Amino acid sequence: MRSLILRLPGIVSAALLAIAPLQAHSAQDRREVLSFAVDEGLNLNSFLRAGPVAAHLLLRSGSDPRILVAFPAGNSGVGLWFAHVEETATWKMVGKPRPYSAQDGRGRALHGIVADTAIRASALSIKQAVLSNVRVLRDYQALGTFPAQVGTEAVVSGSTVTWARDRLDGAPGYRLSIEVTHGILQHGAFHAGGDGNIGLRITALSGEAPLSPLAGPDLLNGHARPDFAARNALSFLSYREKFLAGSWRFNTYFGRDTLMSVRLLMPALKPVAVEAGLDAVLSRLSALGQVAHEEDIGEFAILDHLHAEGSKSDAPTYNYNMIDGDYMLAPVAGAWLLDDARGRRRAQAFLARWDSRHGEAPRTMGAHLVSNLRRVVDSAAAFADAPLAIHLIGLNKGFMAGQWRDSDEGLGRGRYAYDVNAVFVPAALAVASRLYASGLLDPYLSSGDRALLARATAMAAIWRAKAAPLFTVEVANDPARQQIKSYATALGVVPDAALRSLGNEPVRFHALSLDAQGAQVPVLHSDEGFELLFGDPSPAELDQAISAMLRLFPAGLLTDVGIVVANPVFATTAVQARFSSNAYHGTVIWSWQQAVLAAGLARQMQRRDLPDATRQHLLAAQRQLWRVIEASRTVRNSELWSWAYVDGKFRVAPFGASQADVDESNAAQLWSTVYLGIEPPVGYAR
């Protein structure tokens, strides 16, 4: 049968197309299969893990359909984008994806899936295939460009189109084949059969080295909640080498995501899983003790090295641009090593564990942790000595983001983030002091370290007392009401219930951030939940935080479908426009932020030093929060979602379903599975 090469960017080797026949996996692999689906807005998501295969198939419907398969192995992926269609093209799965392994033309192993699908469309014209690291696919989806050197030509043979190539360094690469099973392939386009459907068999393979799953008895203990959707998502994202942040877009290590997920899941995780997460973070610290935000691995690491020094090394490179992880590490490590009985028993052995990733210069986990604590205390000293806004921990120079709200507009163009400065820095200092006093760090401390850590207790007290007040905003009641009415009108939301929830007192809350001059960015936000989880606020501070968050939107953050993570009601109209329901960190709901608040409320309820009125306020807040958590149960394991206001009610709108949305949500997100470790209050036992 004659083959036709479609002239797309790049070169394809005939050897790469000479692939061995696909083979089904062994009976043992089939017994260990993890297979589940998540349908969300325009996206059909199918997840599969079996033996050496782990893959996430995404089928995107709508006017810009696409096929994408992401592999945790090497954070690799293959994708096929189709030209814009005037109709609404609608995908469906025909059965479940099946695990297959094969050999490339050089006899090297490739692992992936075969999936039978159908799409309701008259015709689909091929726009672009991209085979590489998921970071490359992510950039193509957002920007429409990719590095020229990863371009791949297509070969057409009968009813099948195939793209295949080696990795840039010659290692086993990637393969995507699309076979027409219903309809015809003609002139680079797929055409429907008489019933208006196109049947396609998708074969997607990667040569990157498989990861080692953390599954079954090594992942969750008997305290984990019986949420099978969350268990599936967590299982797909959990490996001995690292936890993955989310699929499809973040199928690798992210420091902040790992730390917060380990902290919230800790009651439900087996010790080996907790320590796998901490190990992953500690072993990726910089020489200065900074927590790596993200790693570039596989072919994206090669692209990094080609750009930096012209080599084709695949040695991982790390991004240290975020600042919040630096101050999260100590509180999370302390929760395990000091506060959890299981962790205390294992603490000395864990800290003495050698890190094999540093090759000729290995370090222990203890030495890594000390390097981070050294950074915490050093960086906090200026504010402790002179508690002024200019001495707070600011974003790195030249960056508009540096904490979890890591889009350019996430902090309202502020420089000093509330959560970093008012919560995480004082929490990290307090834990540094406790770890020093425990003696666990003695084998890893120099005399200089001892002198430094001896200051941590006093520094923590100063940060606790002086940082948060710099963010305090107060709006008189009458102006607040006018601003709420005006903002509600702009949103098309009826404000009556929100105004009733306001009461007659001035509105007090902490600003989302301060700008470079120390001026407040007056945006209500969900980061108060961090203080409930890591701090010990006074009764008055608790009452203020709970009231600010759990007033009805747009007076506060509470909607029928969740807690929005930002509310710019008291900001300028320009800021309000940047915090829309289509913005990644705008008036949208992030599942894990609700989980932080739920865990924080539960932690505060355990205190014995609170007056009864405050405890009743906490209890009412728990009931309000869990009501909306349950109302959004169908999307709870997603990264985030938005809302639509219909007939006086807020309704879930999957993020990415609207053309106005800046991006799309991950169908499986690590820190959205954390409800497995959070016990709901009485009355919400589901």
Decide which structural class fits the backbone.
alpha+beta
Distance between the termini: 58 Å
Query: So what's the overall shape?
Result: globular
Ranges with pLDDT <50 over ≥5 residues?
1-17, 26-30
Helix content: 25-40%
Number of strands: 35
Main sheet characteristics: 9 strands, antiparallel
Radius of gyration: 26 Å
User: How many helical stretches?
Assistant: 20
Provide mean pLDDT, rounded.
93
Strand content: 15-25%
Integer count of domains? 3
Write the layout of secondary structure elements.
Blueprint: E1 3-6, H1 14-17, E2 23-24, H2 27-31, E3 34-40, E4 43-50, E5 53-60, E6 66-71, E7 76-82, E8 90-93, E9 98-103, E10 109-120, E11 123-133, H3 134-143, E12 154-157, E13 160-165, E14 174-182, E15 184-186, E16 189-191, E17 197-206, H4 228-237, E18 246-247, H5 255-265, H6 271-282, E19 294-296, H7 298-309, E20 317-319, H8 324-339, H9 341-351, E21 354-355, E22 363-364, H10 365-385, E23 416-417, H11 418-438, H12 447-453, H13 456-466, E24 472-475, H14 477-491, H15 496-502, E25 507-510, E26 513-514, E27 520-521, E28 524-525, H16 528-534, H17 539-550, E29 558-559, E30 562-563, E31 566-567, H18 573-578, E32 589-590, H19 591-605, H20 612-631, E33 640-646, E34 649-654, E35 668-669
Helix pairs in contact: 5-6, 5-8, 8-9, 8-10, 8-11, 10-11, 10-13, 11-13, 11-16, 16-19, 17-20, 19-20
